[in-house]
Specification:
Largest sheet: none
Number of helices: 5
Strand content: under 5%
Order of helices and strands: HHHHH
Number of strands: 0
Radius of gyration: 17 Å
Helix content: 40-55%
Amino acid sequence: MSTASTCATGGPPPTAPEQPAAALGLLPQVAGLPAEQRDRVLSTAAAEPGRRPLSLSAWVKDVRHGVVSTTTSRPATVADAVPAPPPRKPSTPPCR
């Protein structure tokens, strides 16, 4: 999967098996999907082979329904994505 992800993202290969699914989940079109459908779409990048979809045609159908909508008047945008968690505050105050 590292060659495919490098081609798809233009970045370096992932260093952990969870990274491709995490990156895919950050895409606005995927992040804005209902949780169950998002989980099915992300399953293709699962680190464990047993969690990957058996049928890629069903997976493509989920992707297509998430990215190409016939029920909305506009495509998904960044505003539709799940917001990122706020940055953590340092546990100790800075030194003076």
